[in-house]
Amino acid sequence: MSRPAAATDVSADRPRAIAIVGPTATGKTGLAIAVAHELDGEVISLDSRQAYRGLEIGTAAPGPDELEATPHHGVGFLDPRHMYGAGRFARLAHDWMAEIEARGRVPILAGGTGFFLSALLRPIFREPPMDEERRAALRRWLEERPIDELTGWVGRLDPALSEHLDRIDRQRAMRTLELALLTGRPLSGWFSFGEPQHPPLAVRCFALELPADDHRERIERRTRAQLDGGWVEEVRELRARGLHDAPVFDAVGYRDVLAHVEGELSAEETLTRIVAATWAYARRQRTWFRHQLPADAIRVDALLPTAQLAESIVMDWQATRENPRGGEAIRMGTGTA
Q1: What is the pLDDT of residues 287-316, one digit of tens each?
Q2: Strand partners of residue 205
């Protein structure tokens, strides 16, 4: 494990939680469960898609055995029709953390949605009051609009946000337009000037990293396993329930699997398209985690055995809890776990 080359502001307070983060397919779930087992911890998911019921396979959510072995929060609890943004996550995460700490256990944040982590480290604005009847009517209308139309409006109503992000999914576009149209201030404006809803959270952050070739190989291997392991059946079930038009269906791979279910793509074409889309998403995550983590975040070689990484994280956490700088010897050692 090693220190990052670049740094951002970070609180020097004693950490309340461990954060195990990184791009998709780097082994975060298995490592978080291993650490939780050693520290009597509970996992809080930092994943914006694993929160939805019925999308477990395509989002690589923890399986039944993993959920039984370790308590998880933020996994499979939302209806796919509901919105789940960083603000709602942050409010829930603070409640989950308080409950975990009250049980004398360790909160372990794990996942790859960078905006969710940012919502805790650099708290976002407290949501302004909005007329719920108008909001519901606007949301129904926006859900019927194609994503290209929504992103075009985002560019007009919130150009600062549009220029900052290289991809805006349906959920973020709808959230942006709701705020702009119902409050008169765009999302980027609320981020800059809104009152924070929580104080910054002090965490001990571990970022999993892989060489590009190994990362692509893991993505392809995992995608094959997902397609062989029931992803097609999962999409058929969602389609039968009329959920294929829900905003959450913009999650990577789901529309490709739907195209396969409807006979538009062969199995091999589906695999190729999902691997390409997942790698494109992973590259954006790799860039984000390279530049947006706290100054004391620890870079972790994800090629090393999970048990070895878990042992180093546990040692570092125990030292850090005794002294906020207590893990320095581990972080400044050989550069590996």
Answers
A1: 999 999 999 999 999 999 999 999 999 999
A2: 19
Parallel, antiparallel, or unpaired for β 203-209 and 106-111? unpaired
d(CA 43, CA 74): 9
List Cα–Cα distances, 311 to 110, 222, 268, in angstroms.
Answer: 17, 25, 40
Q: pTM, whole model, 2 decimals? A: 0.79
Do 177 and 153 form a contact (C-beta atoms < 8 A)? yes
Mean pLDDT of 153-160: 84
Q: Output the pLDDT for position 331.
A: 44
Tokens of 273: 């398209």
Torsion of Cα atoms, 66 then 208 then 204 then 328, to 10°: 130
Q: How far apart are alpha carbons 11 and 121 in whole angstroms?
A: 9
- Distance between CA atoms of 125 and 254, rounded to whole angstroms? 31
- pLDDT > 90: what percent of the chain? 61
Question: Contact, 75 vs 60, CB < 8 A?
Answer: no
How many whole angstroms separate alpha carbon 174 and alpha carbon 273?
26
Tokens 């975990």 belong to which residue?
100
Cα distance between residue 322 and residue 307, in whole Å? 23
Contact (Cβ atoms closer than 8 angstroms) between residue 174 and residue 162: no
Q: What is the pLDDT of residues 25-82, one digit of tens each?
A: 999 999 999 999 999 999 999 999 999 999 999 999 999 999 999 999 999 999 998 8
CA pseudo-torsion sign 304, 34, 251, 63: positive
Rounded Cα distance between 195 and 137, Å, is 27
